[in-house]
Write a structure and sequence with these properties.
Length: 523
């Protein structure tokens, strides 16, 4: 019997698939109430139960933990992975609820519905105070066209809005299919009547909408955030809402929650909800049904779709392939940060001794490493190919006999609409992973830590100018690799630092004579 403990408040209707299975027993109750924790095979939680290292040690026969929702902040992923426990979530269950909540917030802020409702409850009848605006004919700017952004775009078009999108990885073909107009961030800010954000919160998206670029927006613009607190700079929002430049703002998420003391929520042109975009009966039912289906699949020994961590594999083959898997994962991260254009295809080629192993895990590792910074959900080795398909690009692998003189070689090539980028790497026993070629430039460095990739003209003094600038700024270079294809032509530098390079220092490097580009890569 496969025993499943449902520890938090879960829609029981969603557990129907498990309860109907003859070989599965579903138990409802808190982890504290379980008399025999060793008998539990699977644990289902929402946010109340904290799945800690200690809890996993107590329930030491658990093989899978399911989070009936998107976030997994209450689960110690590292501890689970170390114990060979698979962690899954339900990333698609709240897509419609969040898209609908965003749309409701847009309509509410345009028509001043909450303010009008409060006024009439206070015994007033000030119709002229609540003249609103129509969505029809307005330009809606969506920042990030993932699952939720896509659903929102469909609804906005139905209301007669022109939808434009800023998403660096949106291809022309996908934009055409979805009937949206791809634009730069500046273009979106300058021309949108309503701006809504639907990106993950990362280093790149934190305060993406800030004091500097809010000045580019239209007078009377509306801003919406039902994604993650911190994408909109709250201090900048307060200033622009107070001076009337922003006509209204609708917020479901905040940097600090609960946001009861946040001064934004007290402004008359702000409407706010307490992080409830995913809180619908249907969404709760959907996430419960999703994890129930995944647990049932897992109980039958089949691979699941929404794994958050890497399933533990203890056989000899895994031990042999794992160093290449780690190399591929970091290579994917390197490529993702180096190539900012829309993607059409990723090709991976294996040569040498690695072709004697099952390279499927390696390929999925590279793809998940590449995708993770680009999408608004957790990417893993199981769902990476599905997400790539959703993003509109293809992925392929092949074997070759061209080892470039190494025992093994992995080449990954990202192909965009107008350019491509390639990376060749190898793993050497006793020396570890090495990157040996970037875009045709021979090099040799360890892909880890804080890097800066510089493209420049091969002229005397360029390397010296970079070194002098960093020296003057008291920035220590841990390692440097250079490469060129021919004297006097194009060349590259790869610099390694002890800590992340400040963006103002990177800008100074870009301004140096004969430097073509400079990109930070953090691995």
């Amino acid at each position: 019997m496969f025993r499943v403990l449902v520890a938090d408040s879960i829609a029981k209707e969603g557990m129907a698939a498990l309860e109907k299975e003859s070989g599965v027993s579903v138990i409802y109750g808190s982890v504290e109430d379980v008399q025999d924790p060793e008998s539990i095979d699977a644990l289902v939680v929402r946010s109340a139960t904290k799945v800690t290292k200690e809890l996993l040690s107590l329930f030491h026969n658990i093989r899978i933990v399911a989070r009936a929702g998107v976030g997994v902040d209450n689960i110690d992923i590292d501890a689970a992975t170390q114990r060979g426990v698979l962690v899954i979530n339900a990333p698609d269950g709240n897509t419609i609820s969040t898209a609908e909540h965003t749309f409701a917030m847009i309509m509410a802020i345009l028509r001043k519905i909450p303010q009008a409702n409060q006024s009439i409850k206070e015994g007033k009848w000030n119709r002229s105070s609540f003249t609103g605006a129509e969505l029809s004919g307005k330009v809606l700017g969506i920042v990030g066209l993932g699952r939720i952004g896509t659903e929102l775009a469909k609804r906005a078009r139905a209301f007669g809005s022109k939808v434009q999108v800023f998403d660096p990885f949106l291809t022309t073909e996908r934009a055409k299919t979805l009937q949206v107009v791809p634009v730069t961030l500046d273009e979106l800010l300058e021309s949108s009547d309503i701006i809504t954000v639907h990106t993950p919160l990362t280093k790149e998206t934190k305060n993406l909408i800030n004091t500097e670029n809010l000045s580019k927006t239209k007078q009377g613009v509306y801003l919406i955030n039902c994604a993650r607190g911190g994408i909109l700079d709250e201090e900048a929002l307060y200033a622009y809402l107070s001076n009337g430049h922003i006509a209204g703002c609708a917020l479901d998420v905040f940097v600090q929650e609960p946001a009861v003391e946040n001064r934004l929520v007290h402004l008359p042109n702000v409407i706010a909800t307490p992080h409830i975009a995913a809180s619908t009966a249907e969404a709760q039912m959907n996430v419960a049904a999703q994890v129930a289906k995944e647990i049932l699949t897992f109980s039958k020994g089949k691979p699941v779709k929404n794994a958050v961590n890497l399933p533990a594999v203890s056989n000899d083959d895994f031990q042999k392939i794992y160093p290449y898997y780690e190399l591929a994962k970091v290579s994917g991260q390197f490529l993702s940060q180096s190539f900012s254009s829309p993607i059409k295809e990723i090709k991976i080629t294996f040569a040498g001794t690695i072709t004697e192993l099952d390279t499927g895990l390696v390929s999925r590792g590279l793809l998940s490493g590449f995708l993770q910074p680009r999408v608004d959900r957790i990417v893993n080795d199981i769902n990476a190919t599905l997400i790539a398909k959703e993003q509109g690009f293809s992925f392929s692998e092949k074997y070759s006999t061209e080892t470039q003189g190494y025992e093994n070689i992995i080449e990954a090539r990202v192909i965009g609409e107008t350019e491509s980028f390639s990376l060749q790497s190898t793993y050497i026993n006793g020396y570890g992973p090495r990157v040996v070629n970037i875009n045709g430039y021979s090099t040799d460095f360890v892909p880890e830590g804080f890097l800066v990739y510089i493209e420049h003209v091969d002229k005397p003094g360029v390397i010296g100018r970079v070194g002098k600038l960093l020296g003057d700024l008291e920035v220590n270079i841990a390692a440097m690799q250079v490469g060129r294809k021919m004297a006097g032509g194009e060349a590259i530098m790869m610099l390694t630092f002890d800590k992340e390079l400040d963006q103002d220092v990177l800008l100074r490097i870009k301004e140096l004579s004969d430097v073509v580009s400079a990109t930070t890569i953090n691995l």
